[in-house]
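Q: Structure tokens for this one, please.
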Amino acid sequence: MAYGVRQERRGKSRKAQFLVLLAISLIAVCSVIVLWRIGAFLYDYYARFSRYDELIVKAALRNDVDPCLIKAVIWKESRFDKRARGLKGEVGLMQIMPDLAAADWARMKGFRTPSRGALFDPELNIEIGSWYLSRALRKWRAYRECIPMALSEYNAGARRVNLWKPAARDGAFRERIAIPSTRTYVDEIMEKYQDYRKNWKPQQS
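A: Here is the predicted structure, written as tokens:
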């Protein structure tokens, strides 16, 4: 009788040990999977900040815009996430509006307006955004604060910039921006723009 009890206890002990080992193995496997996913996410997050540099430089050259400014706009608009979607229908890296910027670009270039899905393509998205920004810069180039004015148009539209523009071309503009979110938008991009001008050296091919 005692022998049978000992055998039963040994069996239960082995079963308990097996279950503990199984639990440890499962935890280890899950930990590896979680760490791998975290690592992949972090790599993708930090790598994408330089992933589109070549496209930015090429679009900058074609549209005569400082690549540091384009990169600062992308940083603000999407944090370099090509899948980004805005609350008002904005798409991709530079948050292009399909029925506004994309339609204007297509009409000026003599192309068919790109589909919403096509605008998620980084090269096309950056090209349209750079063209749109370049057009605004040219429009306000006579003003001292032409860059903040162009950025305000990119964010809030040309009609509002016309209302906010100073009477004198050398007058202050930023303090006249009536929408707080647009003022913050401009201030943050200008700060990032200066940072890129100091610390980012784009390779021009």
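A few notes: DSSP finds eight helices and no strands in the chain. Confidence is low (pLDDT under 50) at residues 39-46.
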